[in-house]
Amino acid sequence: MFAKPPFLQLSSHRYLTRFVVSPPMGILYKRKYKQTTAPARSLCYHEQILIEQYSPSVMTDTQRTEAQNFAGYNPIYPLWIHKSAVWVLLVADVIFTSRLNRIIDNPNSQPALLGIFLLSFLIYTGVILINGRALIALGAFAAAVLIVFQVMLFSNVTGMPSPITTALQFFPVLSFTVFFSLANSELRQYTCRTYYYISQLYVFIYLLASICYIFNILPTNILRSLVLTDVERGERLFFYPAAMALCWFFSLSSVRRNISATSITLLAINGIANVLTLSRVYLLCLLAISLVYIATSERRIIRFLSLSALFLTSAVLVYGIIDTRWNPFELFSGDSSGGARALEYRTAQHFLRLYPIAGIGIEPSSYEVGFLTGNYYFAAGDLGAVGVWWNFGLCGLLLFLVASIISCQPIRNLDTKFQWPFFLTGCLIAAYGSIAPVIFAAGGSTFFALIFGMWLSGKELERQRSRPPHN
Q1: Which helix (H) or strand (E) holds 269?
Q2: Which end of the chain is less enclosed by CB atoms within 10 A, N or C?
Q3: Would you say the C-alpha torsion 22, 26, 32, 38 has a positive or negative sign?
Q4: First to last CA, the chain
Q5: CA-CA distance, 292 to 180, in Å (whole number)?
Q6: Distances (CA, A) of 107 to 103, 104, 112, 113, 309
Q7: Would you give the DSSP letter of residue 37?
Q8: Which pTM was predicted?
């Protein structure tokens, strides 16, 4: 089944690597690994060069792609550790982001879930630092410092203390170090598949919970902590935008590839669950991206439209901070949600003119914001780019716009059934950032971290491949 395995020895780096090539399967297997003194980064680089120079005429494009994925691979850490970390992190993400932990009404549940993100961040940032990716590790720590600084800033502005969980609620976005390491450990496909499976399970739970709430099958106090209310839409359950969108786009792309009873049923289930969210801007973005995908299937067009919506809306919102006579939400003041946002925007206009560089900071809850502003219903997450400016200052606003561009990048080396869903979901959370900046907050931060980590891994592979071999 396998070709005779070649043994490759480089005396200058004193290590032995054994590869087994399977042309029919198009996969490159690593059977044995021994390293004495060479650093992992140098070792992986020379593995790539040796693989490509050893039998270039025999290797297929798929095998060459698999060979590139060995860059950054460190077998010192068993894969079962990485796979376990994936499940723990993603399950914690769904429970925290969807607010399912509030059902049990335990005050320690949220700190425990956020502690998982903190622990994962510290461990995997240390791993990539040990593996020689100092720049990426430094960037991760700088982002953590920015979050902590903004929490301290809000405390200084209001004179009110902030608990540690105030900073930790934004740590899911820092889990890109985890996904970067997973991508470099040949777990890109496994990670994306696991994220989808957990998301689909969440959609089933959400649909079942919504039906039970609508028809009063369960006592109302069980799901009360998940309920959102306004005048026009009535009551609905809080939802996880990235997970819901991913499952919808997965079922939509499945129907496009192969129409079957299973794919149509899954499309209907995911469609009903998304409709039950009753989130108008979210559903508008979901519908628009779905129609463009069906009509063209051109990534560049979908990316352009998503980013155009974000940047145009952000420009309109930011302009109102400069010219306080302009309040775009007053156009929708006849709606309860639009009227509330108009008041929030007016509050942001006043305070961002007082603190234009660093913003106001990250608040622990609406109570502290109400104490500062007099508006106890103020939520920076309702104001798109202006909300990011409020929480993270101008530096954070710039990072948010850059992150939105990265979110619209496809993940390379994935199966076809996962390529489109993850790309479309990345475009959706970028476009949805026009009004709800979920890339940095609960609802899309972990998904963006996955995209960002794998994007960094792909860029590193391209850079290593372009280097000339050492003599």
Answers
A1: helix 261-275
A2: C
A3: positive
A4: 34
A5: 30
A6: 11, 9, 9, 11, 39
A7: S
A8: 0.84
